[in-house]
Amino acid sequence: MLTIGLFACHGQHDMETSNSVYYWRTDLHLDSTEHTFLQQYDIRKFYCRYFDVVINHDAEGPVPNATITFSQSVPKGLEVVPTIYITEDCMHQWHEGLAQKLVQRIRQMNETNDIAGVKEIQIDCDFTAKSRRTYYQFLDSIRQAWGGTVSTTIRLHQLSMEAPPVDYGVLMIYNTGDPQKFAERNPILDLRDVLPYLRHLSSYPLPMAAAYPVFSWLRTIHGINILHTVEASEILRVKQAIEAERPTLSNAIITYHLDQENIKRYKPETYEEIYHH
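RE: above sequence
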């Protein structure tokens, strides 16, 4: 309770103004279009997925999965934030030593791939009421093992819960809808799905950054391929509604995720509006 109380004092403090991207591929290899994007929109922070943590029943516990390889060096001038996705079922019970193993693996990957100056790590988990207590205990252990800044993702449905014990949260403003209702609404992002959660936003007791979707989603339903792509106008409508409730969310903007096809999907003017502070 003391930990939560300390963080509650910082809810509406400004995040440092920054433009950032997520990198969610299993090989670090950027082409010229992606390099140009980083420069054109003054991207300073690079949330790079290092690996996932999943339950392996044969191993009787969580194990790393889909670890990234570094075919290229991280572009100069970027602050790298190792980002770990951990499945929710890993938090259904306490796993002794998991936080320490995770931090040790990040440090080893940084050293092996000559990634210096890493000050922050991020943990991504779609925690629920069932897993929240264990996940928050896990985050406390991560903070102790890491000794630096720790952030976590916050999904819209998690805004009504007690805030996690981290330095800040990233509000994930995507995958907001029910995939089974694709004929009615875009499951990636629809303002109608976002609005019910906004009442929690202004009082949420953590500094926050905002992450917006620029990806498409191809699904096969009954043998039919369905492509979901968010209209630029919808992203900007949601951004306006979010910032009306919490103006400081205009400071630190992240797009998910860096990829040539995603860059080409929207006009430069759209990206300029998304990254507008």
